[in-house]
């Protein structure tokens, strides 16, 4: 089972648990004014698990998590639980119609000190595929900045391969480095296109380590 399949499965489990929460609905009583009640223990377990999953998948700054957190500022009764279930359904739909993670949200998340630490965080959490994509983005951005620093002309939407070739041609780094970048760019492309069986977690770990050294060598 792939990582995204596991995430979808977990979301579906939480949707089912949410429905169980709905099924515990009961009236507060004829003499009590207010919303219908739900089982507090099951609701608490469900909300906590939902918040944890949404944060891990979409990031701390995601609109899904912010909306859930706002709802849970007060006691969870039936109506708030209905809204949380709707948010979870929306998150599942967003997830299934986008690439695995909202990478922009992850990249901007305050929990990480820098982009490479984000990749390492994802890697250690078992999400080595998006870690490879983010690391590839970091490398590509580094090449773009190197081109700018050394007055190497680039297109409006520069291609990594061309920047790599032009930097090697300009003597910014040697042919061996150029070949290594080409190999890692291929790994990034495999990750971005979902060819996850063609590389391993150790490959991504080596990728992150190499990019860190490359960046330190050229930008420290």
Strand content: under 5%
Largest sheet data:
none
> Count of DSSP E strands?
0
- List the secondary-structure elements in sequence, H or E: HHHHHHHHHH
Radius of gyration: 23 Å
Oligomer: single chain
Overall mean pLDDT: 85
Low-pLDDT runs: 99-113
Shape: elongated
Structural summary, described in words:
The chain is an all-alpha fold and 220 residues long. It contains ten helices and no strands. The chain has helices at 3-23, 40-58, 63-71, 78-96, 103-108, 115-124, 128-149, 160-169, 175-192, 201-219.
Keywords:
single chain; 220 residues; mainly alpha; 10 helices; 70% helix; elongated
How would you summarize this macromolecular structure in one to three sentences?
This protein has 220 residues and is an all-alpha fold. The protein has helices at residues 3-23, 40-58, 63-71, 78-96, 103-108, 115-124, 128-149, 160-169, 175-192, 201-219.
Topology:
Elements: H1 3-23, H2 40-58, H3 63-71, H4 78-96, H5 103-108, H6 115-124, H7 128-149, H8 160-169, H9 175-192, H10 201-219
